[in-house]
Design a protein that fits this description.
Length: 161
């Protein structure tokens, strides 16, 4: 049945029943592009933040590997004696200052590894001489670690080597 344009205009329709359906009702042509741009910007922000954190972890691990080799060289050169602190490694590193993690904080150094709170395990002999105890088998000689992105000491996101 053929209807004239005037008859079509006189019909009462719900907004979603007319030409264009739900898209026209929601005005997708006007609202859609900004929403899509906002979603894409949110996705890009999330990806960039995740990659920035991952790259920080990779840089920190690389610096820890370099420090680990310097500590190992120090232990070999000084008959297994731990360096008093990381500053003793500066001549071997060839730098004026100690490296920092990707978030600008210094590394933590515990030697020997079995020491509680970073204090070295030692034993005072009868003659008053202090002897440093070697860690037991299976325990590394020392621990190097970064507090990670959040900076909480011993936090769940620490980077340890």
């Amino acid at each position: 049945m053929y209807r004239t344009r005037r008859q079509k205009d006189r019909q009462i329709l719900f907004p979603w029943e007319g030409r264009g359906g739900v898209r026209r009702y929601l005005k997708v042509r006007r609202v859609g592009p900004p929403v899509i741009v906002l979603l894409m910007a949110s996705l890009m922000t999330w990806v960039v933040a995740k990659e920035r954190r991952a790259s920080g972890e990779r840089r920190t691990r690389a610096r820890l590997i370099r420090l680990r080799s310097e500590v190992s060289h120090y232990l070999a050169a000084h008959d297994g004696e731990c360096p008093p602190n990381l500053a003793a490694l500066l001549p071997g590193l060839g730098k004026e200052s100690l490296p920092r993690d990707a978030w600008g904080r210094g590394f933590r150094f515990i030697c020997p590894a079995g020491a509680a709170g970073g204090e070295p395990l030692s034993h005072v002999q009868g003659n008053g001489r202090v002897e440093r105890l070697r860690p037991s088998a299976g325990v590394p000689d020392f621990i190097l670690l970064s507090d990670g992105p959040d900076g909480v000491p011993g936090g769940l996101d620490r980077i340890e080597f």
